[in-house]
Amino acid sequence: MQTHPISVLPFDRAQPRRLAVLLNMNARVVTPRIIRSIQQVVPPSDLYASCSLDDARRIAGEVLRKGYDTVLTGGGDGTFVGYLQAFREEVKQGVSSDGVLAHDLAPRSLPTLGALRLGTGNALATLSGAAPMNGGGVLEDILHVRAGRVTKTRRLDLIEVDGIAAPFAGFGYDALILNNYLKFKNLLRGTPASPLGEGLPGYTLSLAFLSIPQALVKSFPDVEVRNDGPPAFHIGDDGEPIGEPIPNGGLLYKGLARFVSAGTCPHFGFDFRVFPFAGKKPGKMHLRVASTGVVQALANLPSIWRGTWRSPSFHDFYAEQVRVTCARPMPLQVGGDAKGYRDELIMRVSPSPVELIDFNRGG
Predict the structure, then answer these.
(1) Which of 318, 362, 349 shows the shortest CA–CA distance to 161?
(2) Is residue 36 part of a domain?
(3) In whole angstroms, what is the distance from residue 168 CA to residue 349 CA?
(4) The model's pTM
(5) 3 state DSSP class of 127
């Protein structure tokens, strides 16, 4: 199926920005206190809040129709991916949520996007140098963008899975941990212990009591990963391609796998650098297939977390499109959101990268 790239508005450096801030009211960090603080620096007409996907689609249509050139999202990686998907759908359809025709949308391009550090998973905020929430850093980021003092953007390639574009996606350990975190959080919701189910404590406790015990006894299936696009390459320890290119249809990996994921952003949440070579080759994703057992992974967790551990059980590739087939269904996550179980999947680099605001100070 032929696809057409979605255009992005040019980032006019060192000029005041027409800025919209989009918040996710379901995000743990987006509290009434945080909202009151943001209201001090963002006019009511430029501040939007969503409680559902329908809200996000309505907001995306309004933002496009009003012609904002810059948008900041608040609520973590899932919020960024959700709003991005809403924008992409509106641009492709050419009709806003309330029925405005394509020629009335001004302009029919994605605005420049930025991620505030207001979520549980902050991979994109980490990538772009967004300030921490404490100490007024989020407000400073908003003010700097509005005043045109943020002068850089970075290209962010995206991975498309079933029409959803996200900075990472895949099968295995990561999706298992995510699913268990959601189960643990829902189990404690509405109880005095509910704070223990949120954020880093929730991930840590669900990992200890659910994910690690399951991984110790769970048998993972064999998988087959084939290149489904232009030539792919093995990645050496220095991040450079090695060996002969792997042609379309070529076998990348076959055998037991506990982790089959790809990223265009180096991190998951909490600064977990799972794709250390992501972003080094524009237009490519870093595909990582791992057969590492849970005991070995725990023994080397600090270096795995930093992205410095190398092992024969890690198989790394640069690719543009791959097809993954599993002997039986495995848990799937896309952009940090659980997507059930699948036994086959195509992951491809989107033809439409986005411009991500870089908050790192300097020109």
Answers:
(1) 349
(2) yes
(3) 10
(4) 0.85
(5) helix
Q: What is the pLDDT of residues 297-310, one digit of tens each?
A: 889 988 988 999 99
- Asked whether residue 229 is assigned to any structural domain, the reply reads yes
Query: What count of residues does the chain have?
Result: 363
Q: Cα dist. 350→69, 200, 333 in Å?
A: 22, 31, 17
Through-space distance between the first and last CA atoms of the chain, rounded to whole angstroms: 40
Based on the domain organization, do 138 and 208 belong to the same domain?
no
What pLDDT, in 10s, does the model give residues 204-223?
888 888 888 887 777 889 99
Cα 187 to Cα 233: distance, rounded to the nearest angstrom? 43
CA distances from 65 to 68, 94, 115, 208, 356 (A): 8, 10, 21, 47, 21
Q: What angle do helix axes 77-93 and 53-66 make, rounded to 10 degrees?
A: 60
Instruction: Please tell me whether residue 235 adopts helix, strand or coil conformation.
Output: strand
Position 156 in a domain: no
Contact 235, 275 (CB under 8 A): no
Same domain? For 215 and 241 the reply is: yes
At residue 138, what is the residue type?
Answer: V
Specify whether the CB–CB gap between 16 and 148 falls below 8 A: yes
| CA distances (Å), origin 168, targets 20, 50, 349 | 25, 23, 10
Cis peptide before 107 (omega within 30 of 0): yes
Do 203 and 181 meet the contact criterion of CB atoms below 8 Å apart?
yes
